[in-house]
Amino acid sequence: MIAEIGHFALILALGVALAQTILPIWGAQQRDYTLMRIGVPAAQAQFCLLLLAFFSLMAAYVTSDFSLLNVFENSHSAKPLLYKISGVWGNHEGSMLLWVLILALFGCAVAVFGRNLPPDLKANVLGVQGSISVAFLIFIVTTSNPFTRIDPAPFEGRGLNPILQDPALSFHPPFLYAGYVGFSMAFSFAIAALLTGRVDPAWARWVRPWTLAAWMCLTLGIAMGSWWAYYELGWGGWWFWDPVENASFMPWLAGTALLHTALVMEKRDSLKVWTILLAILTFSLSLMGTFLVRSGVLTSVHAFAVDPARGVFILGIMVLFIGGALALFAGRAQMLRQGGIFAPVSREGALVLNNLLISTACAAVFIGTLYPMALEAVTGAKISVGPPFFNATFGPLMVPLLIAMPFGPFLAWKRGDILGASQRLSVAAIVTMLVIIAAYALTGSGPWLAPLGLGLGIWVIAGALSEVAFRAKMFRAPWDEVFRRLRNLPRAAYGSTVAHIGIGVMVLGIVATTAWQSEKIISMKPGQSTSIAGYDLKFMGVSPNKGANYSEQIGLLIVSRGGEEVTRLFPSKRLYVAPKTATTEAGIHAAWTGDLYSVLGDELKDGAFAVRLYFNPLVRLIWIGTLIMFFGGLLSLTDRRLRVGAPKPARAGTSPAAAE
Hints:
The protein is an alpha+beta fold. It has helices at residues 2-30, 33-37, 39-62, 69-74, 81-86, 92-113, 119-143, 167-196, 201-232, 243-268, 272-294, 308-332, 347-379, 387-404, 418-424, 426-442, 450-471, 479-488, 491-516, 620-637, 656-659, and strands spanning 518-524, 529-532, 535-546, 550-561, 564-569, 572-576, 582-585, 587-591, 594-603, 609-617. The protein folds into 4 domains: 1-159, Four Helix Bundle (Hemerythrin (Met), subunit A); 166-330 and 344-409, no CATH class; 410-517 and 622-627, no CATH class; 518-620, no CATH class. A hairpin with a 2-residue loop joins β8 (587-591) and β9 (594-603). The longest helix is centred in the middle third of the chain and has 33 residues, at 347-379. It is globular, with a radius of gyration of 27 Å. The chain starts with a helix and ends with a helix.
């Protein structure tokens, strides 16, 4: 009965989404405020109905209702409760239901918190958001219904893919989808702006909080996926340039560019064309990621194995929304009057450089990801584009971006002074040079470019701190004035500083673990010892263990340094009951200097076991950096100037920029 309620709620949500799409947009065209206001209760009702459908499916998973095909194919009665719940979105049908639920959540949030939005703009935003829901709800109801029944119902289910039964991956998809779907708000605002002709600094202020919220969620979602792959897949790395990884990384890059260009539009009423185009392209890349994961064109641990017919349906949705949006953009581009002119050396110029480099990097990832598939579709030839290509194209574009990053905040709007900015960054430059020299002294054997990479990370961190010090007049004014200035700095300024520090910290982790990783693959019998990166490891053998829904062989490695025991590592090989699948569990010793990483391989003929050992210097800084970036975005989001809604209208004769 609960499943039928969920199915009925899903169909009702489709009807409500149709009303949300048609009536507010028609009302905005006819200037009928009664019709425009229908978008608000429709968005709220759609979210409530989808929430009911989602919890109905979750109840079926928790109670192991195997009369539902979706539960039968993706759950098992022996699964722990956490993985029964996460199993709801660990499959195609359930994850699509979560996808539209988050889509409705963002629409509902605009309906509730967007009270200061102009009625016609708000109606169009909710209408466009509703149209996306309509497309995907039709897709779910017709091709991916999670409430399909089996008769007769089986006694037991097939179980969830064992590699997905992990705490990090339980929370990874919701954050990832919140980022993917959150960019739909930027898309809806862009289309609404084109429909109403309202493209001004106030529009940029309205769109920035939604873009920032989506960017934060996607940042955290990507970081969780990277962390899971690091310790669960047993390969010792943190990023493989997998096509599905790239599918989430591309909208993150485009969203980062959109955040910066929206700032220029808000402050200087410039870059309107580029900002609107970025808002469209960012969500377009999110749709493309959805297509890649669900179309069957990719083979990946991240991809859902579904039939190509569903991929054709999603491809049709992409053509409809991306093609329609770009056609509307082309038709209305002439109305996007450009704002003030600025010199190349200015804060606007620095943000434009930021956009050019990030967009070019995104294009490089796009080409490297899609070119093999396009080539195979046209010629049948199969090629592989892997890390060497992406490292050679993406990495060099990031170097000038990181160098230029600290200069931007020190440049004035419209026309800046590069020499003055350099002088204000002199302390950061000195600290950077000292770190580079120290790195060369400590790592004299190479690689020779690695200390320069560490210097880039320190340069970004020191530059961000220098900006706060300069704005507070630190060491140039009495301390009571310094503290007063620090208290009065807007939260968005602190948020930007924290986010840039997070980028610097992440760069330190990437450079260190890439340049100085140690690796050792050996066979070990019980009682044998080996060493890596200053650690001595003694293999004590393997013992059996039984889990809730798996059996495993656990290895024991005693780790010592200088004759004293440091820790014990327990790498293991697991065999799950349903489905019957083997996985590896890495044994990791985390320290500030780096991770000692061990993987237990197969048993060999002579009684030895294959053992893989890695030492990844400073690797934790990668995820610490992303967490810092997330909290920087959260700090910016709490700034009262970035509250959801519009700034107060300017007085007559006052420009929007001056009114702030």
